[in-house]
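Structure ticket #2291
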Amino acid sequence: MSVRGIFIICAITILLSIGFISLFWLPVLWSLVVLGPIILLGVYDILQKTHAIKSNFPVLGHGRYLLEKIRPEIMQYFVETDTEGRPFNRIFRSLVYQRSKKTTDTVPFGTQMDVYRVGYEWMDHSMYACDLKLLDLDPRVDVGGPDCQKPYSASLLNISAMSFGSLSKNAILALNKGAKKDNFAHNTGEGGISPYHLEHGGDLIWQIGTAYFGCRTHEGEFCVDTFAKKASLEVVKMIEIKISQGAKPGHGGILPASKNTEEIAAIRDVPAHTDVNSPSTHSAFSSATELMDFIKLLREKSGGKPIGFKLCIGKKEEFTDLCRAMISTGIKPDFISIDGGEGGSGAAPVEFSNSLGTPLRDALAFAYDTLIGFD
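Resolution: structure written out below.
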């Protein structure tokens, strides 16, 4: 007999028992309080049509969903080893906790890593250690080619692109305050420059995506005038053209009407409470040569600030075409951001995240070799 059948028989038996002992009010009350909710839950499980497990295993079926809910915690605390967690294993998570609390962060014994596995990486050390007092403990890199009039001295570690709207007001304020405090750059993401990016005055990398949020016409095309106005802001140190991202290369995106508030719409120059599409490709250019011309335009309208582009490498010949266009036009970006195919996002199709785009290390090696090959 199925669990469902057993439940129905037990429920009927209990109800009949309650009827037989109706003269004794206390047992009846106790039965109603304890067993009544369970019976009602079971009846609801049988009648609902959404979950087959609950219908076939009334009451007991809820245990399956409870176990599923706590599955990540079970994996983390009882199944995973210290070196298996993703994207960060327990060793490094513990290290972050220890250092944030200023407790001991050194370890006894040796490494737990499998140093002989394929793909294991390490750094070579020198016998001639340097005196830390003689080192530059704030290493930076100058970004800006010969045509750049306002090069930027960038930190080696900066805040990656995350938009207001994807992140909250408080998150943007906190990130930008950190950028200001320790003198590194904060990438706005393609959602545009919000008042919260400006409040603390941290250095900004203004990212411009396919929807041209913050510098677009009513039709969604690129607007030179609004771009020039915002690019002239002192806190905007560099401009990044987002061609594609690793989480969903070539996919585009959508800002649903439910999230498109009055505030977000004003920042992005779009009508409020409407669905807004980010196309999969740019309308301002459609070839490698046109991209170089677009870079030149942005550099002129920004007053000579560094202009670069971000992409997840797909077809390698297209990146090669970009290099040929740099040679033929004499126009070069001031920086290139390479995003790996394993990159994350607020929302991306699983098929894209798992199967599209060149992984970061392979992409970096290819981009570097290609740029060197074209001198």
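Closing remark: The mean pLDDT is 89.
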